[in-house]
# Entry
Amino acid sequence: MYIAKLGSGPERMWIQGRIHGDEPYGNDACLEIIKSLLGSGRRILEEMTFWIIPSYNPDGSEHFWRRNANRIDLNRNWWRTGGTGYSEPESIAFYWAWVEFRPHYAIDIHHQGTYFVEDEDGNDTNQMTAFSIGISVRQEFLEPWIWDVSRGMAVVGYDAVSKLGFCNPSRYPLVNIHSAVVSSMMLGNPGPDGHDAGWKTAAMFFENRGGIGNKSRGYIIKQNVVAVHAIIDAIAYGELTFVEEERWDEIPDRGGRIRDSDKWPNEWAELDPRTHPDYDAGTVHDEMTAVDDAGNESDPAGPGTVTAITPTIPRTFALYQNVPSTSRCSGRPWNGRHSRRGS
Ligand SMILES: [Zn+2]
# Structure
């Protein structure tokens, strides 16, 4: 396990990727962020210090499954109840790294399924949301300043990726997962053997559209880099405190899943593993990104509670965004408006 340590400034930021081994682009995004930080000039590295973990879960990454080699979800393991918390070497190692570093800010990069942008009536607008931003602990459990700084980071990230035009960023559903790594950082939960770090970290997470093959790799990595750099700039140049964190409420809710929309043709239903005769809803399926029936990637509270998995998205779906009509998809000729005759 590796931590890239950059910079020497007083503002400290922790960035982690691929805690779930089947969510690969957090890894790529962290490496891109390291590269761009090293090329971004001295000012940021004098204002801030970064500890960046491109691959929190190397064994799970090798297997390309969610959990680690012991089949434990590392993002439910910073917790001491039930005797299962901090059971894993990754959790213990990174907990003590967090205690040593004491970051003010943390960002955690994940994948989710593919969701569409809804209109006011909840209908599919033929646009997909490629990026969701979330906070993994509900407000009532957090100190107000943690809630405010975390929302401020989220708003900055949202504004930055909104300008990209293609990602239709949205707000991840409200979740409350106290055993997740950045949740535990926000709460200042006891560590292994009850250790009290005496420290709390403002944090939020990104969820990238996933399960779609390499064709979308470039822009998915890019949206993370853009969002992280916007947050870094806001911190380094002292602008984060001026962000209206209340605008968190204005970030649009994440829409429905593409497979539940009219863009999921019946003839492809067999690709949805939930419809397979051997599918057992009570079985843990961790070979693919785990999501529950509500589409929340982060919902499983522990082993055995995952109730659905992301299907393999047909290749055609890579063209989903901005495809105006099915006739374009089927390869029919243009209507002549853009023919050579006119130019
Ligand atoms: Zn994840």
Q: What stands out?
A: The pocket of zinc ion is lined by residues 20, 23, 110, 297 (CB under 6 Å). Helices lie at 25-38, 42-47, 58-63, 89-101, 144-162, 181-187, 217-236, 326-329.
